[in-house]
Design a protein that fits this description.
alpha/beta; Sulfite Reductase Hemoprotein, domain 1; 3 domains; eight-stranded parallel beta barrel; six-stranded mixed beta sheet; globular
């Protein structure tokens, strides 16, 4: 069977070139890969929903065998969708599945054998790069032979101790990890790879991708980028985060494949991705433009402020807003002072789209892109189909999605995959129902320990799958209650929060 998963020439897409090739939509199965029948059915559902590329978890050698059967069954049914094998921890599994898959997604951390140290010298960095090159060479040889692509998947939550020592848990650390692996692959003469820098924090995800593009411009080497806000969660909040992160970058012409990560059925991700593509203009970005993009420092801590970020303007008095408009003046909703609207840099988004989700996506991508270019002091939404109260809530939700201003409990949750061994969609729903009154807290619901503990480093509390039907609870990044039965875990989380005297 001929591999058809796109060479670099095809995948380069719009990256910095204003190309007219389409941005492709990806999703991931959440069935156990060993359950071949269920996985094949889900892949077909994703294709029917409009998915261009499907990623499948491959954790063990046994799952490599299952992956091969899945691919053959699809081929026998004349379904030739590109399949990406998602591999964690095991280079040997990556090498085996690369014979079958169109692309193998690897995590750089799986090829780093750094010893945990208090300090890392320049010699340590040189030695580690040499070791990485040695460790990854077998995979590169298999991929060359079988024309298999590689995705270098860097997640904020799984940076190596060496990278963390020098750069911290930052966008810069993500970029340096990606550049290190890109350099190693190029040294071997391998060019058929994609880069992916993901985080649950939208601004870090944006900053990392823009920083990587700048580095590629400097080196005059361009490789395709896969975009996604990982652990976005569920519902409208997750859609807003994805629109803010993915949509803003697409507006700049950055991105070749995208995945909207929802803690929902995988096929629900596809229409969201399609709508995002509808509301962006992939015109490309020039060197001069990209150098002017703006990023605030994004601290990793456990405190969420509801006072920071752009001001909220409403068309009618609303206690949740900062100002309301009256005859060209802005009247404070809290202090009774009046200012001229011309004295404030206001981003006004006026759109008479009657479909609520379409309106939100358009508003979010537009504001997020504008914030990168010229950060406004205030945000004002206008739409004749929705009343002032709804628009004020939307404004606050968009600002929270961007991590600019927090007005309610913040949730991050992974989209689930074949590694998840509990009903994460139902548990996220229950966690939200039980904890939504704890404003100012960030709570993470994660499927497993692959990226979970690292990705939720800035969460107050974590609810993480740790085995079949088992949950471990975290406080400020540290496991405090381990291996709780799934049925008891939500109440245990609630009691943990209450015991910490949270309001």
């Amino acid at each position: 069977m001929e591999k058809r998963f796109y060479s670099n020439k095809i995948q380069i897409g719009n990256l910095l070139m204003g190309g007219d090739l389409p941005v492709l939509v990806q999703s991931m199965t959440n069935t156990p890969t060993a359950d071949v029948e269920a996985t094949v059915v889900q892949i077909k559902q994703l294709i029917l929903a409009g998915c261009d590329i499907v990623r499948v978890t491959v954790s063990t050698l046994k799952e490599v065998e299952s992956f091969g059967i899945i691919r053959k069954q699809l081929h026998d049914q004349n379904i030739d969708v590109p399949l990406v094998a998602d591999v964690h921890y095991s280079p040997k599994v990556a090498e085996m599945v690369a014979v079958i898959a169109d692309k193998v997604r690897i995590n750089p951390g799986n090829y780093v054998t750094d010893k945990i140290k208090e300090r890392y010298s320049e010699q340590d960095f040189i030695a580690s790069r040499l070791q990485i090159a040695k460790n990854i060479q077998p995979l590169v040889e298999v991929c060359k032979k079988h024309k298999t692509s590689i995705r270098i998947g860097v997640n904020l939550g799984s940076l190596s101790k060496r990278i963390l020592y020098r750069y911290g848990n930052t966008a810069k650390g993500m970029v340096e990890s990606a550049l290190e692996f890109m350099g190693v692959l190029l040294d071997t003469g391998f060019h058929q790879f994609t880069l992916s820098l993901k985080a649950s924090n939208v601004r870090i995800m944006q900053e990392a991708n823009v920083m990587l593009v700048k580095e590629m411009i400097k080196k005059n080497i361009y490789f395709p980028l896969h975009l996604g806000v990982t652990e976005a969660g569920s519902g409208m909040d997750a859609r807003i985060k994805s629109a803010a992160g993915i949509g803003a970058l697409l507006q700049l012409g950055i991105g070749n494949t995208i995945r909207v990560s929802l803690t929902e059925n995988p096929e629900a991700e596809i229409p969201v991705a399609k709508k995002l593509l509808k509301f962006v203009n992939n015109k490309g970005v020039s060197i001069s433009e990209i150098d002017t993009l703006h990023f605030h420092a994004v601290p990793i801590d456990q405190k969420l402020s509801n006072q920071s970020g752009p001001l909220v303007i409403a068309s009618q008095a609303d206690s949740r807003a900062d100002y309301s408009t009256q005859n060209g003046k802005l009247v404070s909703t809290k202090e009774n002072n009046v200012i001229n609207s011309k004295d404030l840099n206001i981003f006004t988004f006026e759109n008479d789209e009657a479909d609520f989700e379409n309106f939100i996506f358009n508003a979010t991508t537009s504001f997020a892109a504008a914030f990168l270019k010229h950060p406004p002091q205030a945000f004002y939404l206008k739409n004749r189909y929705f009343n002032s109260s709804i628009l004020t809530k939307c404004t606050l939700d968009i600002l929270q999605g961007l991590g600019l201003r927090y007005s309610k409990t913040e949730y991050i949750a992974c989209p689930s995959c074949g590694r998840t061994r509990f009903d994460i969609m139902e548990k996220l729903k229950q966690v939200k129902e039980k904890t939504s009154s704890f404003k100012g807290l960030k709570i993470a619901v994660m499927g497993c320990v692959v990226n979970g503990p690292g990705e939720m480093a800035d969460a107050n509390y974590g609810f993480v799958g740790s085995g079949k039907g088992k949950i471990t609870l975290y406080r400020a990044g540290k496991a405090v209650i381990k291996q709780i039965p799934e049925a008891e875990a939500v109440e245990a989380l609630l009691e943990l929060i209450k015991s910490d005297n949270q309001p």
